[in-house]
Amino acid sequence: MIRIAIIGGGISGLAAAFTLEDHRRAGALEYTLYESSPNLGGVLRTEHIDGCIVEAGPDSFITEKPWAADLCRTLGIGDQLIGSNDADRKTYILVRGQLIPMPEGLMFMVPTKILPTGLSPLFSWTTKLRMAQELLLPPRAAAADESVASLVERHYGAEMVDRLADPLLSGVYGGDAASLSVRAVLPRFAEMERTHGSLGRAMLAARNKMPRTVNKTAAPLFTSLKNGMQQLVETLVPRLNPSSLVTNHSVQAIHPEAGGWTVSAGLKSDNFDGAILAVPSHAAAKLLSVSSPELSAELAAIGYSSSITVGLAYDREVRQSLPPGSGFGFLIPRSEGKRLLAATFVHNKFPHRAPEDRALLRCFFAGSNAENIWQQSDDAIIAVVRDELQQILGLRAEPLFARVYKWKSAMAQYGVGHLERLNRIERLRQKLPKLALAGNGYRGIGVPDCIRSGQEAVKQVLTS
Ligand SMILES: Cc1cc2nc3c(=O)[nH]c(=O)nc-3n(C[C@H](O)[C@H](O)[C@H](O)COP(=O)(O)OP(=O)(O)OC[C@H]3O[C@@H](n4cnc5c(N)ncnc54)[C@H](O)[C@@H]3O)c2cc1C
Questions:
Q1: Whole-structure pTM over 0.85, yes or no?
Q2: Best mutation site among 170, 447, 452 for ligand 1, i.e. most ligand atoms within 8 A of its Cβ?
Q3: Cα–Cα distance measured from residue 213 to residue 384, given in angstroms and rounded to the nearest whole number
Q4: Which atom of ligand 1 has the smallest separation from the CA of 286?
Q5: Which of 25, 369, 427, 455 has the fewest Cβ atoms surrounding its Cβ within 10 A?
């Protein structure tokens, strides 16, 4: 009987286990999933507090990437999928202490509508002039990878990096635009520059090619589950073989042996024909440090950042006091000198996640801002959040409840040269017996990418 080990019980490892489950039922193989913590799901965690649905980790996923919604449908919870309330989709940027809405027509950070951008106080006249000049840029094939900040600055100037590129990417990767790779993080931008030169012209050309959706409502930007992201885990786990799931077992190392792998967890070792490492790449590096120091060094070089989310609920008065059309929330450029990176008005983004008489806010710290307050107590972190919310929103009220969630080195940072590193990793991996890598360290940090990585890892380990 073929035996497969999965290390890591986050959504990547669970997606791999679910894919293997059909083979197991058919009697073709057996698998063991090792998870170091008592709980499965990794960073997917939802708390239900006082009628509010509070997400500790991810709150949703991008609708455009199908793998998470497809998995929900396969699990029979397609009817539980909900879209973000895009009628109220407005994001604010803090500029010199004022919340300024992102103008209509900005596609990611590329302006496609002249009037709203031209009139917006978000940008100085110098940046607006750069936007107009950008439309004239000729095609350019970059010889090497570069940072997102470098590409954006070349097109629109430093202000665009500070006010949009950096805050937008911090919200997704918890990292900064000056170190993230364009080719790994925004491959479309690199391609648009190669084909059109101007990102603005390329975006307009792509938009003109899109089929007109006259009577069709556009899909929401974000999708989630009615009862929160943990609903995915709670539906998936009962569909797995209970005796294949080993929680509270931290794997220390894996060693190639007799064409397969020996997995050492605690005082016990077990032999498998193949292994799927569905852990952050820094954890995969540790597991392989003796058996493949070269691969281990490449995995260890993929950066990770830590993050803290804080959920706060307020009463009806606070909800009514927030600016009308307050939208999904706001992002804070580094130049504003705040510790918070972003805040989401959850009651607007996913209205049923808070009763109508509650305001539910989700605040986000990442990178050095999270590290700097990491050791502080929850009360002290909540005090930092409240202080900044008071400065930004004038919000002085006592929250009805507040919860702090810390995620150590959980968000991968795809630095400049990431894709070349992945090629080197792939070459080294192929030299080893059946081994697959899944998780957010490689080809996508979002939940749908992680699910796909788990599914593909199964194919890889069964066919290699
Ligand atoms: C705060 C936050 C907000 C996010 N928001 C979004 C969002 O809104 N939308 C979105 O799409 N994505 C979001 N992401 C990203 C996404 O949630 C993650 O990239 C994804 O869930 C990672 O899943 P994973 O299974 O690869 O890793 P993890 O969830 O980190 O799971 C890895 C598991 O491996 C276990 N493990 C580690 N080492 C060992 C070992 N030696 N032995 C056994 N087990 C081990 C860990 O305990 C953990 O359970 C967010 C991430 C964070 C942290």
A1: yes
A2: 447
A3: 45
A4: 41
A5: 25
Asked whether the beta carbons of 33 and 265 are under 8 A apart, the reply is: no
| DSSP helix/strand/coil, 169 | helix
Give me the DSSP letters along 109-168.
TEE--HHHHHH-TTS-HHHHHHHHHHTTPPP---SS--BHHHHHHHHH-HHHIIIIIHHH
Residue 211: partners with Cβ closer than 8 Å, 6 or more residues away: none
Q: Give the E-state strand segments of 202-302 in sequence order.
A: 222-225, 245-246, 251-257, 260-265, 268-272, 274-277
* Cα–Cα distances in angstroms (integers) from residue 106 to residues 33, 116, 165, 370, in the given order: 44, 9, 12, 29
| pLDDT per residue as tens digits for the range 2-34 | 999 999 999 999 999 999 999 999 999 999 999
CA torsion, points 420, 426, 432, 434, in degrees to nearest 10? 160
Q: What is the sign of the dihedral through the CA atoms of 237, 245, 37 and 367? A: negative
Sign of the dihedral defined by the CA atoms of residues 61, 64, 67, 73, in that order: positive
Q: Closest ligand 1 atom, CA of 439?
A: 26
Task: Specify the residue with its C-alpha closest to ligand 1, atom 13.
Answer: 58
How distant, in Å, are the alpha carbons of 68, 376, 398 from that of 402? 29, 15, 10
Q: Of 275, 306, 302, whose CA–CA distance to 291 is shortest?
A: 275
Question: Do residues 34 and 272 lie in contact, with contact meaning Cβ atoms separated by under 8 Å?
Answer: no
Residue 302 Cα to ligand 1 midpoint, Å, equals 15
What is the reported pLDDT for 141? 86
